[in-house]
Structure formats: structure tokens, C-alpha cells
Amino acid sequence: MSAAAGPAEPAVTTLDVLAPMAGRVLPLAEVPDPVFSAAMVGPGLAVAPELAPGTAVAPVAGRIVTLHPHAFVLEAGPGRGVLVHLGLDTVQLHGAGFTLLAAAGDLVTAGQPVVRWDPAAVTAGGRSAVCPVVALDADGSALADLAAGPIAAGALLFRWT
């Protein structure tokens, strides 16, 4: 009699997380919000966006599981949720200045437009336009190839292994 095989170990896959907009990459530690700067919801990077009306695009392919005008979460597979937060304290704007281009539950491709917004209007209202991009509940050591400096929308921001 042969021993029964146990459950297969899940394959480790690498997820490329792309910049949701053009701007300048910042480490999360420099984000002026204690929840993000302390990586309480997970590790990642932030993008200080160009201050012109633009579009936030999906940083990964997946399903939109949470969608607010100021933030969205994409599920790119089991245990792989990516949060994009458009500015800081922008929930207080109650959606003003944001236009949803997708809906919760939608399957999106990386680079697909999700929200139209105006970072300059956010800063004019006294808020930061810095956009954290977080690998939810990941271990900090799971991120690699961290971008730095100027970045184009859709360029590699980090890899999640």
C-alpha cells in the first residue's frame, strides 16, 4: 500500500504591481499618515502624482472587491489584495472630484482606468495627493524590485513574491 499524497503546496507566484498613475515614487515611511507610514495594512510604496487631472488605473489584473471614489482594492488571486488610496483624508470629500470608471465586482486588466480624479484639487483643499499602493496583509520581505524616483503610469512599482 502506498501512502496517500497530501495536499499540494500552492505554487509561489510573483505578482507585478504597476504604478496606478504617473508621478514620483515614495517609500511608505514618507507618507504623512501613520496607518500607511507604519505599514499597518501592509507594505508597499506611494506615488506623489502629477498635479493635473488624470486617471488612476488598475495596478494588477483582478476583481475589484472594494470601490470608493477615493480608494479601491483589487483581488489578484487568493491572498493577493492590492489597495490604491487616492490621496490622504480624501474620504472627507464624499466623492467630490472623483469619477468612478468601473464598478465593484468588475474584472479588470492591469492598466485599465478605474477612477478619474484631480490631484491638484485635492491639494487645493489642504489634503495630500500622495497615493499609497499597498500589498494588503503581506510580509514586507515579500516585496522586491521596488521602484524609486519618477515613474510612468503602468510601469513596474514593485513585485510581490
Question: Helix amount, in percent?
Answer: under 10%
The name of the CATH superfamily reads Glucose Permease (Domain IIA)
- Quaternary state reads single chain
Biggest sheet strand line-up: 9-5-6-7-11-3-2-13
User: Could you describe the largest sheet, including whether it forms a barrel?
Assistant: 8 strands, antiparallel
Distance between the termini: 38 Å
Mean pLDDT: 92
Description of the structure:
This protein has 161 residues and is mainly beta. The protein has one domain: Glucose Permease (Domain IIA). It contains two helices and 14 strands, in the order ββαββββββββαββββ. Strand 5 and strand 6 form a beta hairpin. The longest helix is centred in the last third of the chain and has 6 residues. It is globular, with a radius of gyration of 17 Å. The termini are far apart. The mean pLDDT is 92.
Set down the secondary structure blueprint.
Layout: E1 15-18, E2 23-27, H1 34-37, E3 44-49, E4 54-57, E5 62-68, E6 71-75, E7 81-85, E8 98-100, E9 107-108, E10 113-117, H2 119-124, E11 131-135, E12 143-144, E13 149-151, E14 156-160
Antiparallel strand pairs: 1-14, 2-3, 2-13, 3-11, 4-10, 5-6, 5-9, 6-7, 7-11, 8-10, 12-14
Key descriptive features of the protein:
161 residues, globular, single chain, three-stranded antiparallel sheet, mainly beta, Glucose Permease (Domain IIA), 2 helices, 14 strands
State the gist of this model.
The protein has 2 helices and 14 strands, in the order ββαββββββββαββββ. It is mainly beta.
